[in-house]
Design goal:
A hairpin with a 4-residue loop joins β3 and β4. The chain starts with a strand and ends in an 11-residue tail after the last helix. The chain has three helices and six strands. With about 180 residues, the chain is an alpha+beta fold. α2 packs across α3. Strands 1, 2, 3, 4, 5 and 6 form a six-stranded antiparallel sheet that branches. It folds into two domains: about 110 residues, OB fold (Dihydrolipoamide Acetyltransferase, E2P) (Beta Barrel); about 50 residues, no CATH class. The longest helix has 27 residues.
Length: about 180
């Protein structure tokens, strides 16, 4: 058993139960005041009943003493919580830095990374890369079957892939030019 102190950085995010599930989950974005690290904790309503109700009504800036225990798999579970106050001995929040993003303030913005999760912007960019990669593969197959005996250039493949990408994202149909370049 171990206790830690946290400060909420934003209102907890609670998911709606999915059709095939009968439980909810919440993401608690907080600063661990003991070590100064910003983190996100995922809690399920069936495992953290003692903590769930308290955090539902909590507001950004609220400070709590969290009782936690390690489960059978070695992960910390929050088993109890009580309101607390911020003291002068609390560690300051550490700024999160990366090569692509400057140091962040203690309170993250809506799309800033908390924990190891991707931001919505990073997910969107990743989806574009996935669609482009898939469309290049599809364009290669298209060329293999439709340009028999004709030269297949990188420009041709990229143009066909762009047509496929435009269709995926915008529903726009542009004819593929099968004439030799």
């Amino acid at each position: 058993m171990s206790n830690t102190r946290i400060e909420l950085l934003k209102k907890v995010d609670v998911s709606k139960p999915k059709a095939d599930k009968n439980y909810q989950q919440m993401i608690v974005t907080h600063t661990d005041l003991v070590n100064g690290k910003t983190d996100g904790k995922k809690l399920f309503d069936f495992t953290a009943k003692a903590v769930w109700g308290t955090l539902l009504t909590a507001n950004p800036g609220d400070v709590f003493e969290v009782e936690r225990n390690k489960n059978d798999k070695g992960y910390w579970e929050w088993t109890g919580i009580k309101p607390s106050i911020k003291t002068d001995t609390d560690a300051p929040a550490q700024a999160v830095t990366s090569p692509t993003r400057p140091a962040a303030s203690a309170a993250p913005s809506k799309s800033e990374r908390v924990g190891s999760w991707e931001t919505p912007e990073e997910r969107a960019v990743k989806q574009i890369y996935i669609v482009r990669q898939s469309n290049i593969t599809a364009a290669l197959e298209y060329a293999k079957h439709n340009r028999v005996g004709k030269e297949i250039t990188a420009d041709y493949i990229l143009n066909v892939a762009k047509v496929f990408e435009d269709y995926v994202f915008d529903g726009v149909r542009t004819p593929v030019n099968d004439q030799p370049e």
